[in-house]
C-alpha cells in the first residue's frame, strides 16, 4: 500500500456504516464499525465484507444501495475513514 492509500484508508481509523430499517433490525444495531485493518477500499469491498461478516445481510446485498456522503455510490467508489456510509434498503409503503 502506498502512502496515498494509507492516507485515504486511514492507518488507525475505521469505516462507520449506518444501518436503517430492516437491515438495522436484522443486525440489532444502527451502526457498524469496520476496522481499517480489513482493507476496505471501495463500496464493492464493503459489500463483500458485510455479506461475509454479517451473513444475514448476504441475501439482501443485491437489494441494498450504498450512499457515501449523502449520495448513492457505485461499487467502484473509493471509501475513506471520514466518509459517511449508509446502507439504504428497499422501502415500501403507500
TrEMBL record:
Q: Where are the transmembrane segments?
A: none
Entries under InterPro entries matching the protein: Beta-grasp_dom_sf, Mopterin_synth/thiamin_S_b, ThiS/MoaD-like
Positions in coiled-coil regions: none
Q: What top-level branch of life does the organism fall under? A: Bacteria
Known CDD domains for this protein?
Ubl_MoaD (cd00754)
Q: Which Gene3D superfamilies match?
A: 3.10.20.30
Q: What is this protein called?
A: Molybdenum cofactor biosynthesis protein MoaD
Give the species: Thermogutta terrifontis
Q: What is the lineage of its organism?
A: Bacteria, Pseudomonadati, Planctomycetota, Planctomycetia, Pirellulales
Amino acid at each position: 500500500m502506498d502512502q496515498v492509500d494509507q492516507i485515504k484508508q486511514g492507518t488507525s481509523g475505521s469505516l462507520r456504516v449506518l444501518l436503517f430499517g430492516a437491515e438495522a433490525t436484522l443486525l440489532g444495531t444502527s451502526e457498524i464499525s469496520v476496522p481499517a485493518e480489513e482493507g476496505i477500499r471501495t463500496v464493492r469491498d464493503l459489500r463483500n465484507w458485510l455479506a461475509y461478516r454479517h451473513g444475514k445481510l448476504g441475501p439482501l446485498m443485491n437489494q441494498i444501495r450504498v450512499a457515501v456522503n449523502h449520495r448513492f455510490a457505485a461499487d467502484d467508489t473509493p471509501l475513506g475513514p471520514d466518509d459517511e456510509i449508509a446502507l439504504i434498503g428497499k422501502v415500501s409503503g403507500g
